[in-house]
Amino acid sequence: MSFTLAIVGRPNVGKSTLFNRLVGRKLALVDDQPGVTRDLREGEGRIGPVRFTVIDTAGLEEVTDASLPGRMRALTERAVDSADVCLFLIDARVGVTPVDRTLAELLRKRAPRVILAANKAEGRAAEAGLIEAWELGLGEPLALSAEHGIGMDDLLRALEPIAAEFPDAAAIFEVDVGDEVDDNVDEEGGGAALPAGRPIQIAVVGRPNAGKSTLVNAILGEDRLLTGPEAGITRDAIAVTVDWMGTPFRIFDTAGMRKKAKVQAKLEKLSVSDGLRAVKFAEVVVVLLDVQVPFESQDLRIADLAEREGRAVVVAVNKWDLEEEKPQKLNELREAFGRLLPQLRGAPMVMVSALTGKGLDRLHTAIVKAYAVWNTRISTARLNRWLAAQTADHPPPAPAGRRIRLRYMTQVKTRPPTFVLFASIPDAVPEDYKRFLVNGLRRDFDMPGTPIRLYLRSGDNPYANRRKQNVTSLDKHKPRRFEG
Question: Which amino acid positions bind GTP 1, per UniProt (predicted)?
Answer without folding.
Answer: 9-16, 56-60, 119-122
